[in-house]
């Protein structure tokens, strides 16, 4: 069930209405039922994967808390990690591993092809797997008490607004909110609907229209001039941003309707001054997850310089692999790690990067530099193969002056896209619902009307799936 479909438009109000009509002690039953139904609308069978992960982590969490023997606790943690990562590997990385193993066999002359598995990747498996892993790790280290109520724990794993594409929430932040009685309030209703409306506008009017242009360029880059190819690359930067940002604020708005607060997942990332700041503003829930559960356990920055470089590079490579089972994603993550380290060492050596005030000339120039770097690295993220990515870069320099086809951007899209960019600049370190609440009533309703008109009239002809659903 996609957020931008009639099914969800019908499902959400019914879920919210029943939520407030249900007594507090039974609300977890309603939300868990709604969440399982939401997920089963994709493929019924895969709900058993979520249920299995839930039972394993619920049980190991309780047993870890009860056990005083370190070895027992370690075995239980290993059981949780191996179960969740094993499922993730089997469904997401098995074919990638087999492909590469078969390639190795061919190179060394072994006539043995391991057959591939033919199945659909469970939607959101990377997201809910990381969510359950964070709980098990926190219980093991004593940072979190084990949850004794299976229902509340199952709801933590499967809460429908953020189940399939985040934000990746921590148990200590999300689950206590399920146990509090949230009364219906105008503020929750208004802020939730504002976020949902803005998220639908960003997804359906901006991201989906940009997606059609990006597909044109990537389908036949040889038909376009270097300038049009570069325009296509920049358009993809905003397509993936508006697509994932739109999903995130719809998720946050949907939870807000019930009085439940999810963490912000984006804070104007393309206004970042460097790659380090970019990853503090892009997909924040994943970045902080890797920081807390990979970077810090590796030693963080409290190690020798060579080890710190290894730690940084490892986090970025694993992040790339998290996004997808292909060499392009791995290279994408590695390139971010290389640029991160180069920027860090360069700035530390020459000390030229200062703390510029927002919108100052220095900030603008650094933000442009960061955006261009990110745009070029996105090529590996978007390309279907390493060869396709290299071909894009080759044509970017070879097709100067060549223009057998032209990338035409409709005037209406230029208008809406410009307004989106302006709004993103105005929302620097702010969120749309809070920013809009400062407007007078007539101003707010003018914006509501404009957004609804744009969605109804100018939504993309094709309903593109959310990009991050594939992860």
Query: What's the main sheet like?
Result: none
Number of strands: 0
Order of helices and strands: HHHHHHHHHHHHHHHHHH
Beta-strand residue percentage: under 5%
Helices, by number, come to: 18
Q: Please tell me what the overall shape is.
A: globular
Q: How far apart are the first and last residues' alpha carbons, in Å?
A: 16 Å
Structural class: mainly alpha
Oligomer: single chain
Give the C-alpha Rg: 23 Å
What is the mean predicted local confidence, pLDDT?
90
Question: What is the count of structural domains?
Answer: 2
- Helicity level, as a percent range? 55-70%
Low-confidence stretches: none
Care to give the gist of this entry?
By secondary structure, the chain is an all-alpha fold. It is 68% helix and 0% strand.
How would you describe the overall organization of this protein?
InterPro entries: Ac/AlaTfrase_AlgI/DltB (IPR024194), AlgI (IPR028362), MB_O-acyltransferase (IPR051085), MBOAT_fam (IPR004299). The chain crosses the membrane at residues 5-22, 75-94, 114-137, 244-263, 308-323, 329-347, 359-381, 409-429, 441-461. It is a multi-pass membrane protein. This protein is an all-alpha fold and 471 residues long. The chain has two domains: 6-180, no CATH class; 187-273 and 356-470, no CATH class. The chain has 18 helices and no strands. The protein has helices at residues 6-21, 27-40, 47-66, 70-107, 125-140, 150-158, 171-178, 186-219, 226-256, 275-281, 284-295, 305-323, 327-350, 361-382, 386-398, 411-426, 432-436, 441-458. The longest helix has 38 residues, at 70-107. The relative contact order is 0.11.
């Amino acid at each position: 069930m996609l957020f931008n479909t009639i099914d969800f438009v019908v499902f959400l109000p019914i879920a919210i209405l029943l939520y407030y009509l249900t007594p507090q002690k039974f609300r977890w039953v309603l939300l868990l039922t709604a969440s399982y139904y939401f997920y089963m609308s994709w493929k019924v069978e895969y709900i058993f994967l979520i249920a299995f992960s839930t039972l394993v982590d619920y049980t190991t969490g309780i047993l870890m808390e009860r056990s005083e023997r370190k070895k027992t606790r370690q075995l239980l943690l290993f059981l949780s990690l191996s179960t969740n990562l094993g499922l993730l590997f089997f469904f997401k990385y098995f074919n990638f591993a087999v492909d590469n193993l078969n390639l190795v066999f061919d190179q060394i002359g072994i006539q043995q092809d391991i057959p591939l598995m033919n199945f659909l990747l469970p939607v959101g498996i990377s997201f809910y797997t990381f969510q359950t892993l964070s709980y098990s790790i926190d219980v093991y280290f004593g940072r979190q008490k084990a949850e004794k109520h299976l229902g509340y724990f199952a709801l933590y794993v499967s809460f429908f607004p953020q189940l399939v594409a985040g934000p990746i929430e921590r148990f200590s932040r999300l689950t206590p909110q399920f146990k509090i009685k949230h009364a219906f309030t105008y503020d929750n209703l208004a802020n939730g609907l504002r976020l949902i409306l803005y998220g639908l506008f960003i997804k359906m009017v901006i991201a989906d229209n940009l997606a059609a242009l990006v597909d044109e360029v990537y389908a036949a880059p040889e038909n376009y001039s270097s300038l049009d190819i570069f325009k296509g690359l920049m358009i993809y930067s905003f397509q993936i941003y508006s697509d994932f940002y739109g999903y995130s604020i719809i998720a946050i708005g949907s939870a807000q309707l019930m009085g439940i607060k999810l963490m912000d997942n984006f804070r104007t990332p393309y206004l970042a001054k460097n790659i380090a700041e970019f990853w503090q503003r892009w997909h924040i829930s994943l970045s902080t997850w890797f920081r807390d559960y990979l970077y810090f356990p590796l030693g963080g920055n409290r190690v020798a310089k060579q080890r710190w470089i290894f730690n940084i590079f490892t986090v970025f490579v694993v992040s790339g692999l998290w996004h997808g089972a292909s060499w392009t994603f791995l290279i994408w993550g590695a390139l971010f790690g290389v640029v991160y380290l180069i920027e860090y060492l360069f700035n530390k050596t020459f000390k030229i990067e200062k703390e510029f005030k927002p919108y100052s000339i220095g900030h603008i120039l650094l933000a442009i530099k960061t955006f261009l770097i990110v745009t070029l690295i996105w090529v590996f993220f978007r390309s279907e193969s390493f060869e396709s990515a290299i071909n894009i870069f080759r044509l970017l320099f070879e097709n100067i002056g060549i223009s057998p086809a032209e990338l035409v951007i409709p005037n209406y899209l230029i208008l809406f896209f410009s307004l989106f960019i302006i709004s993103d600049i105005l929302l620097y370190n702010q969120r749309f619902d809070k920013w809009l609440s400062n407007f007078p009533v007539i101003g707010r309703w003018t914006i509501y009307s404009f957004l609804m008109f744009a969605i109804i009239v100018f939504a993309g002809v094709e309903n593109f799936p959310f990009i991050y659903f594939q992860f």
